[in-house]
Amino acid sequence: MNKETKLRIHNITAKSALKFGSKAWVLKKREEQRLEEAEMKFLRHLLGITKLDKEKNQCIRGKKGAQNIVKEIKQYQKKWLQHVQRMDTNRLPRQALKHRPEERRDIGRPKKRWRDQIHFED
Questions:
Q1: Where are the domains of the chain?
Q2: What is the Cβ-side half-sphere exposure of residue 90, based on CA atoms within 13 angstroms?
Q3: What are the Cα distances from residue 87, in Å, to 81, 93, 116, 121?
Q4: How distant, in Å, are the alpha carbons of 15, 58, 62, 71, 81 from that of 43?
Q5: Alpha carbon 122 to its chain's center
Q6: What pTM does this model have?
Q7: Which of 2, 37, 1 is nearest to 18 (CA)?
Q8: What's the pLDDT tens digit per position in 27-84?
C-alpha cells in the first residue's frame, strides 16, 4: 500500500476516532499535546522517520500536507457554535449554551468551561 493511500485511510478512520465527540470537549494543554503526539506518531511511522532523525513536526506535516489536529478540532467547535446559534431558541442545545446556573461554584480554581474556551459574543 502506498503512502497516499495510508494517509487517506488515516484521515478517514484514525482522525475521525480521535475527533469523535470533540464538539463538546474542553481541551486542556495536556490533552492537546496527547492528540498531537498520536497524530505525529502515525505520520512519522508513515514516512519512516524516527525521533532520532530530529525532524520538526512542522516539516513532517508539510511533507504530507497534514493539518494540526488541535486546529481542526477548534475549527469544528466553532462550526458547531455557529450551528447552535442559528437554531431556534426552544431547541435544547441552544438552551444549554445560554444557561447560567444560579448556584455558587466550588472554592478554588474554576474549571475551564466550553463557552470560555470558544470566546463567543452573547
A1: 3-100
A2: 0
A3: 10, 8, 20, 16
A4: 12, 11, 11, 17, 30
A5: 23
A6: 0.74
A7: 37
A8: 888 988 998 898 888 888 888 888 888 888 888 888 777 788 888 888 888 888 889 8
